[in-house]
Amino acid sequence: MITRLAVAGYRSLRDLVIGLDQFTLVTGPNGSGKSNLYRALRLLSETAQGRLIGSLAAEGGLSSVLWAGPDNYSQGMRSGETRVQGTLRKGGISMRLGFSSEAFGYAIDLGLPERMYPFQRDPEIKVEAMWTGELLGRSNLFAERRGLAVNLRNASDGSWRKSLSNLMAFDSMISHYADPDDGLELLVMRERMRNWRFYDNLRTDAEAPARRPQVMTFTPVLAGDGADLAAAVRTIMAIGDDISLAEAVDDAFPGARLNVTGEDYGVVEMDQPGLLRPLEAKELSDGTLRYLLLAAALLSPRPPEIMILNEPEASLHPSLLDALARLLKNASRATQIVIVSHSERLIEILRGNYGVHEIALGKAGETYVENQDPPDWIWPKR
Fold first, then answer.
1. Which candidate, 11, 128, 104, places its Cα nearest to that of 60?
2. Over residues 210-219, mean pLDDT
3. Most buried among 20, 82, 104, 372, using CB within 10 Å?
């Protein structure tokens, strides 16, 4: 389980460290930084997939995503009593991302390229570090990348050896390390980070792929846009927790039953009391289809280490939020869940009934956490 998330120099997140639990809810008013926190988690996952630099370039490059305020942000600045004025950065240009669990921790530091490249939006990876435990220290650091070189610590005597010396400035040691005999921990961390799952774009519009017949193939993981809903539902029915799926549908739509028809191409259908025939996915309301997409995602037969959902309540009628909350809580028994929500009703339900760990964000220039002191965190130095 990921216990700490740290972000510095990214959009409104000047220097934020938060503690995560098995079931975490991120709340806050519009503009408080919830979406930035979600994107920071996604960027960490994309580091392991070799897409970090491209994703930052798509956001406008490092200059567009950097924290735009001063290095230090006082209480007076936060309250508005002290005016924020232009200042030179003492610590240099830096965007840092990191996380840790009880087993491992990882951090990456990006900055401006030292040489002129033809791709001016691409930042350069300055430092990466991996350590055992939750907090970086001199004795538990076992992999370090500085510049283009990666050094690994020998477990036998604590000495260091050079493992790679020719990384490109935009290649992460996580995504490009390939020797299981020399750096197994790096490979394990890569697979763990690649397995993180994000849902923020489940489509329910009239042209949504989930409304059309889909190829029936083994699908233990629902696609990010829900395009393979029929195959994912049939996979749950075949090898997953089909009872929990049926219960989740009945909880939201009493008496309703879910089915998938078709062999080579399949379609989701729902039988509902009072109707003479089942309704196909193309006939379902946006809210009904979205709930089915969430159920298929949360009841995956291959649960990830962590699943992050951005505004899962979108398009749902308030009457479905109790069922959604129960579905989320049940899913948190198999995987770590992080939810970013705007819905006061869903937030109230989760606070009152399910013991969710809440991160309440506020913003006064920079994003800060209102309801907890930050856990300890140490960044690797350049």
1. 11
2. 96
3. 20
